[in-house]
Amino acid sequence: MVLTELGSKIAGALHRMTESTVIDEEVVDQMVKEIGKALIESDVNVRLVFEIQKKIKKGVDFEALPPGVNKRKLVQNVVFDELCNMLDSGKEPYRPKKGRPNVFMFVGLQGSGKTTTCTKMAYYYQKKGWKAGLVCADTFRAGAFDQLRQNAAKVKVPFYGSYTETDPVQIAREGVEKFKSEKFEIIIVDTSGRHKQEKALFDEMQQVYDVLQPNEVIFVLDGAIGQAAKDQAIAFRATVDVGSVIVTKLDGHAKGGGALSAVAATQCPITFVGLGEHFDQFQQFEKMSFVRRLLG
Ligand code: GDP
């Protein structure tokens, strides 16, 4: 079997280590080398890779170990912890504040799950007692307006959009102003996607961003796209100030190795994950279960 996923490669390296008859420095060095190679192949920043390699070796200091320690388990734990640390971007996502408008602008490629995720997040906050509203500023895709309107109706979240207005900047501005004047607290703006990263999309995104000056730009990343995730994240981040990432479709077979590379490359924290097509299949991101899944 060709293991192409980052998670499978790391899991493979760990497995070979645990299968060795003796766990010594040489075996650990070999495993660290393999993990480093897998990370570099996934375009994780080289400096970051060296750092994680160093930390794993430091965490596995056999000479300092009391007798009787299960070395295999220890190595596994150290690798697990360091992968979790890699997901710590060191940057705090925006935390919405009660009693004031908090504007979130969603960006991402078409099909990433952006519209579904906008609805999920509005629903998530509404259930927690926040006043949430949805704005459809996607004038590019036919059907986007109806899709978000229907989604909003299903979860009973107020919706703003226009069938006739073709300027996304205008709709975004009007929708946000309307919700602000009505004292909404969570204002979520769905913007256009495209099938690929292209200039027209980025120009439009930039214009909407300049006008809205949102509190947070959320990049929606399809968890199933593998290593293409990193380039996507970097391209979006280069255009607008992406503050956090939501990874979708982690209910399928995808292990999310691409998401790990994307986060490592952009240093943007993951806040939530999408776990299905239903609006309540949405959870706060949890590092440990993500890494468990990655290696599983
Ligand atoms: P957009 O083009 O980025 O706005 O994407 P949509 O929100 O229209 O979603 C594209 C497809 O992905 C739809 O069929 C959604 O139901 C599906 N989808 C979105 N999020 C998830 C998820 O977390 N899990 C699964 N299985 N499907 C999802």
TrEMBL record:
Organism: Stygiella incarcerata
Chief place of localization: cytoplasm
Domain comment (free text): The NG domain, also named G domain, is a special guanosine triphosphatase (GTPase) domain, which binds GTP and forms a guanosine 5'-triphosphate (GTP)-dependent complex with a homologous NG domain in the SRP receptor subunit SRPRA. The two NG domains undergo cooperative rearrangements upon their assembly, which culminate in the reciprocal activation of the GTPase activity of one another. SRP receptor compaction upon binding with cargo-loaded SRP and GTPase rearrangement drive SRP-mediated cotranslational protein translocation into the ER.
Family: Belongs to the GTP-binding SRP family. SRP54 subfamily.
UniProt-recorded name of the protein: Signal recognition particle 54 kDa protein
Reactions performed catalytically: GTP + H2O = GDP + phosphate + H(+)
Full-sequence range covered: 1 to 296 of 490
Described purpose of this protein according to its UniProt entry: Component of the signal recognition particle (SRP) complex, a ribonucleoprotein complex that mediates the cotranslational targeting of secretory and membrane proteins to the endoplasmic reticulum (ER).
GO cellular component: cytosol; endoplasmic reticulum; signal recognition particle, endoplasmic reticulum targeting
GO molecular function: 7S RNA binding; endoplasmic reticulum signal peptide binding; GTP binding; GTPase activity
The keyword Endoplasmic reticulum belongs to this UniProt entry's keyword annotation: yes
Signal peptide boundaries: none
Positions of the SRP54-type proteins GTP-binding domain: 269-282
GO biological process: SRP-dependent cotranslational protein targeting to membrane, translocation
UniProt-annotated location(s): Cytoplasm; Endoplasmic reticulum
Keywords: Cytoplasm, Endoplasmic reticulum, GTP-binding, Hydrolase, Nucleotide-binding, Ribonucleoprotein, RNA-binding, Signal recognition particle
